[in-house]
Specification:
about 350 residues, alpha/beta, Rossmann fold, Helicase, Ruva Protein, domain 3, 2 domains, 5-stranded parallel sheet, two-stranded antiparallel sheet, 16 helices, globular
Amino acid sequence: MSDTIDPKVQKATDEFRQKFARLREEIGKAIVGHREIVDGVLTCLFVGGHALLEGVPGLGKTYLIRTLSQALSLKFSRIQFTPDLMPADIIGTNIVMEDPGTGRRMFQFQHGPLFAQIVLADEINRATPKTQSALLEAMQERTVTVGGTRYPLAEPFFVMATQNPIEQEGTYPLPEAQLDRFFFKLVVGYSSREELKQILDRTTTGHVPEIEPVMTQEEILGAQRLVQRTVMAPHVQDYAVRLISATHPGSDCATETVNRFVRWGSSPRGAQALTLAAKVNALLDGRFHTSFEDVRRAAVPALRHRILLNFEGEAENLDTDAVVQDILRRTPTIEQAAA
């Protein structure tokens, strides 16, 4: 299939790989390690999705997102979520303005920090559900409605949120509807011994990395269109569909673990995430068609936050990552099923 690829498509694929590598390189000037997390964030960018980063404090989640904004020629905005943050503090509000010439007063909309292209929602689970819900329309529809008027957001629009999993007091867990709007949930782990040494060398010696812009708005939108056009064969698509069905308790594809420990499985957004992330994986491998392995590599970050455990699963302290891994082990590809 790769032998008959159109030269223009091959050129676009090669340029995509080069730009992805350049972005990874620029981020690497500031961020040590975390290759999987960086690739996950960039994948979300190139599919037009949003990313949720979870990890204990001090692991560089916010720094990673700020560095990405410097490597892209896009408008960046940072919102620090706190319990007293109100929806109007995020989306903006109508204020009374007076015309100097006529003295007439009128309402004028003042844009909030959400009107950017890369939005960092820092410690999103510290805000109340009412404030968290202010993001829902923007994340799904790319618009904001205030006073009955809809305001479009500039494309590309990319929300990257961080949350701390260990401080439950004074936090408000994100509801499933909002979690489902994040394309990937990326769990940021601890750095290795060698990575810690590099971090100290970079942060305690006065070293200030210079991040250069790598991609423009038009180039990002073009890359997103390329991802959409990447081919997924029917048998690969069927595999992705069966993986999603396997998360649904009582379905024909559900595993024993799912039937016993899962309350709700993935929505269709999970299937969309598997498909688009698999296409990015294929492009990074120099192919314009997806494989089973492309889908499998996307499964954990795409599904871990779309599976809700039941009481027994929570009592067993089961991790949704383990549920996804069990599904991957027990859901055959077509070749395996035929064998």
